[in-house]
Specification:
The chain is α/β, with parallel strands linked by helices. It has one domain (5-252): Alpha-Beta Barrel (TIM Barrel). It has helices at residues 19-27, 48-57, 78-94, 113-123, 140-150, 168-178, 195-202, 238-247; strands at 5-8, 11-16, 32-35, 63-66, 99-102, 128-130, 154-157, 183-187, 206-209, 212-216, 232-236, 249-252. Strand 8 (183-187), helix 7 and strand 9 (206-209) form a beta-alpha-beta unit. The termini are close together. Its main location: cytoplasm.
Length: 253
């Protein structure tokens, strides 16, 4: 009887904000993690200590490091761009296998080519992802060409819609426009129950999601209410990661 192997229809990237989440996602089949901090702010650059702890425990893990100096918009001041480039270089020193995710825009809603070129130079040979700032640009087809010209490896996008499912047509058009010159990775509302249909309808070679579960905090609950602690924590759901991986993994003879 011939042996049966299993193939992945698309790569799975999981957004995490701690070392434990990265290790857990990898253990159940994630192809790559995006390491962030402060996901309540939409994600900012993780600390050097977090990067070092992950590199020590999983030196070969494929990781993309979010490099974003603050929450809010994606228009960087000269000082912020200096910080971004320094953080990119630091991430590469601490995690040699890492890629980086950035998203500099100008005030007109276009890719800030000068800033992006500086970041790509700082990244050297590391893969560069343009994150979902892409979903706020004024003209996605034009922005995609900017990314290709700048040497960006992949773009994370919902197709400009609230979710990737709603942006199916735009994602398919971006994949066709990219024509293998840049990887289009679908993100936004990706779940186990819709991921196979999404990949089939768009042809994206990769998907991105925050597989989250909320648990009660182990910390002492003060009788005084504080805005920064509601008594819960958000962790990576290995069940959701495994379900997404399973939905995209098919047996082949």
């Amino acid at each position: 009887m011939p042996a049966t192997s299993r193939t992945r229809r698309a790569a799975v990237e999981i957004c995490v904000d701690d070392v434990e989440g990265a290790l857990a996602a990898s253990a159940v089949g994630a192809d790559r993690v995006e390491l962030c901090a402060a996901l309540g702010e939409g994600g900012v650059t993780p600390s050097a200590g977090t990067l070092a702890a992950l590199a020590q425990r999983a030196p070969a893990l494929a990781v993309t490091v979010l490099v974003r100096p603050r929450g809010g918009d994606f228009v960087h001041s000269p000082v912020e761009l200096e910080v971004v480039c320094a953080d990119v270089a630091a991430a590469r020193r601490i995690v040699p296998v890492a890629g980086v995710a950035v998203g500099p825009l100008n005030p007109r809603g276009r890719v800030d080519r000068a800033a992006l070129d500086a970041v790509v130079r700082a990244a050297g040979s590391a893969p560069v992802t343009f994150h979902r700032a892409f979903d706020t640009v004024a003209d996605q087809p034009a922005a995609l060409e900017d990314l290709v010209e700048a040497g960006v490896t992949r773009v994370l996008t919902s197709g400009g819609a609230a979710t990737a499912h709603e942006g199916t047509a735009a994602l398919r058009a971006l994949v066709e426009q990219a024509a293998g010159r840049i990887e289009v990775m679908a993100g936004g509302g990706v779940r186990a129950e819709n991921v196979a249909e999404l990949v089939g309808a768009t042809g994206v070679p990769a998907v991105h999601l925050r597989a989250a579960r909320t648990v009660r905090s182990l910390g002492h609950r003060s009788p005084t209410a504080v805005s920064y602690d509601d008594g819960t924590r958000t962790l990576t759901s290995t069940e959701e990661v495994a379900a997404v991986v399973a939905a995209l993994t098919a047996p082949t003879a």
